[in-house]
Write a structure and sequence with these properties.
The chain is built from 21 helices and 25 strands. 56% of the residues are buried. By secondary structure, the protein is of the alpha/beta class. The strands form 5 sheets. The chain has a 6-stranded mixed beta sheet, with helices on one face. It has a 6-stranded mixed beta sheet with strand order 9-10-11-12-14-13. A 5-stranded parallel beta sheet has the order 18-19-20-21-22. Bound molecules: zinc ion (ZN). Residues 133, 135, 292, 503 line the site of zinc ion (ZN).
């Protein structure tokens, strides 16, 4: 590690907010003052070191100077590091900034007697993972709900009333179901729910969020009967042979339609949900999270208020990006779109500059598991090909309006027809100020990969989906199409910026499980490449220059793993035999999950 990589150039680290009251304590350790003394001169000019934390004696994967693929690194010539970037053995940070990264001697030399000095004992330090597409508000709310999963459909449904024991007599029972592992994967119907819980309204959300089932009481309270019209692309209502609704609704408006009859989450519910989500994310090593559809559960105003309070109170200590649902802030295709500044004005003053607002969320289709993804050719197990949420002209108009409002667009597209429509809409619109994103981008072919590369958009993909619903995808698509799902290596080879995410709580969402799923899916991918997609690439997707790498001046967002993840063969990761765990997570210089001896 060259000294020059360890600190910012002549201007030095950003020291605003540091104690600047007394000369620094004498440096200590072998090699004191060597090498780094000039490049970090500002550190020695009148600063206390008691806020310094020094981690040494490990492997620091910096992702600094990292190329997204090992092939690109090799092509760049000898000495260029792999996708994990330059390696170091020690790092020093204070408050929310990294001060230096280097070898043990260089970094130990920065510590004073009053600094926290922690021996990593061979553990690894990486940039905290970035989660550019999740639903933390929803994750926190559903964390206390029952998830009807497992192998036996009947047993899963029998467990439903167990969730009602603590409820008030007429309160709604809300739960989720995941039929992908069931022996009979049919969606539950109103009859199933009526049998299980006849005496209170029940709303059951498909784990993907793209379908719901309501029981008879909930349908009645929502005013849904045999005459209720569907909304093409947005809400389909399944009917039985007599023409009665089966209780199953599909499409992006389904949740809203039933939930409108239900008491809304209170502000306290929202705050508690975000606090719960933060705890879960931090435990998985995540230090930045994006809410990829603000407003989808309780409305934009209520959710922004909850975010504002959670951030201001410290309950949400992670870096936050909020992506408002475009149809929620501009309901009709021709509506003017409120700008990021307009949305920021809905947040409390104190947190406005702590929230990134760069992309709006738009949905072009649904999910493969619920037969609502939009395909070019029909499903293998259904007589249709899904359908678009917006017709292509309206989709293009919405993209144009969003760019006019000062946003880039992150569009959900899973089926090949939906991906095509989104790329058409992006191509027809004026260039955005920052790259658009394509969320999921699941069913691709060579031509679509080439078009995606040419578009300049970032692909935000979810490897854990494959581990979760792989068998269901094969049933929906057949072998040929299923084999084309999520070609990570091809995306990288085409030069497409590719960031991993989880879409949690659709799946549990731990980034390390995402690495395992990605390496199981594609033998051609390296561990360093998979980790790059959770770090440096995530920072690019979130347009956050201060995260995703470990270098002087970057935010002190770190995850400490039990050992160097790149020293474990990809095959062991793919088998789940890697043995790597998150030891501790540090966000903005604060320990937010786990523990490590000596770490405050
Ligand atoms: Zn999502």
């Amino acid at each position: 590690m060259r000294a020059g990589t360890a600190a910012r150039s002549s201007s030095g680290p950003d020291l605003r907010g540091f104690d600047q009251v007394a000369p620094s304590s004498p440096t200590r350790g072998p090699g004191s003052g060597r090498g780094l003394a000039t490049s970090i001169a500002p550190l020695d000019s009148g600063l206390m070191t008691h806020h310094y934390t020094v981690l040494f004696g490990g492997t620091v994967l910096t992702f600094e100077a990292a190329r997204p693929t090992d092939a690109a690194s090799r092509a760049a010539g000898p000495g260029v590091p792999d996708a994990a970037g330059r390696r170091a053995t020690a790092i020093c940070y204070a408050h929310d900034r990294i001060l230096a990264v280097g070898d043990n001697a260089e970094i130990l030399a920065l510590a004073g007697p009053d600094s926290h000095v922690v021996d990593l004992r061979g553990r690894a330090v990486l940039p905290g993972f970035l989660e550019p597409h999740a639903h933390p508000y929803w994750e926190g709310l559903v964390a206390g709900m029952r998830l009807l999963a497992g192998r036996e459909r009947r047993a899963a449904l029998r467990a439903l009333p167990g969730g009602a024991e603590h409820l008030e007599p007429d309160a709604w029972l809300v739960a989720r179901y995941d039929p992908t592992g069931w022996d009979r994967p049919d969606d539950p119907t109103r009859d199933d729910l009526d049998r299980a819980v006849p005496d209170r309204p029940v709303l059951l959300a498909h784990v993907s969020g793209h379908a719901v089932t309501a029981n008879s009481l909930a349908l009645a309270l929502s005013g849904i009967d045999r005459a209720t019209p569907a909304v093409p692309g947005r809400m389909a209502i399944d009917h039985d042979e007599e023409g009665e609704p089966t209780g199953v609704l599909r499409g992006p408006d389904s949740w809203d339609r039933i939930a409108a009859a239900m008491p809304a989450p209170t502000p306290a519910d929202g705050r508690a949900a975000l606090a719960r989500a933060a705890t879960r994310l931090a435990a998985d090593g995540v230090t930045s999270v994006a809410d990829a559809d603000v407003g989808s559960t309780a409305g934009v105003a209520a959710e922004l208020a909850a975010w504002g309070e959670a951030i201001a109170s410290g309950a949400m200590p992670l870096a936050v990006a909020l992506m408002p649902g475009l149809v929620r802030i501009a309901p009709a295709p021709g509506d003017a779109v409120p700008s990021p500044a307009d949305i920021a004005a809905m947040l409390p003053d104190a947190v406005r500059d702590r929230v990134r607002l760069s992309h709006v969320k738009l949905k072009a289709d649904g999910a493969l598991t619920t037969h609502t993804a939009w395909l070019r050719a029909p499903y293998d197990d259904a007589p249709h090909a899904g359908r678009p949420v917006h017709d292509p002209a309206a989709l293009a108009e919405r993209v144009r309006r969003a760019i006019g409002g000062g946003w880039a667009v992150a569009t959900h597209a899973i089926g090949d027809a939906a991906v095509t429509a989104v790329l058409d809409a992006y191509a027809a619109a004026p260039a955005p100020q920052r790259p658009h994103r394509l969320e999921h981008a699941m069913l691709l072919d060579e031509d679509l990969v080439a078009r995606l590369a040419a578009s300049g958009a970032t692909a935000v993909v979810q490897p854990e989906f494959l581990a979760w619903a792989g068998p269901t995808y094969r049933i929906r698509l057949g072998a040929e199409r299923a084999a084309r799902l999520l070609p990570f290596a091809a995306l990288l080879a085409a030069g497409i910026p590719m960031s991993f995410s989880s879409d949690r709580p659709v799946v549990p969402g731990a980034p390390l499980d995402g690495v395992r799923a990605a390496l199981r899916h594609e033998a051609g991918l390296s561990v360093a490449e998979a980790l790059h997609a959770w770090t440096a690439a995530g920072a690019a997707a979130l347009d956050d220059d201060d995260a995703g790498r470990l270098a002087a001046g970057c935010r002190s967002d770190l995850v400490i793993l039990s050992r160097d993840p790149t020293a474990v063969p990809a095959a062991a990761w793919a088998r789940g035999d890697d043995g790597i765990v998150v030891v501790a997570t540090i966000a903005g210089g604060r320990l937010v999950a786990g523990r490590l001896e000596g770490l405050a």
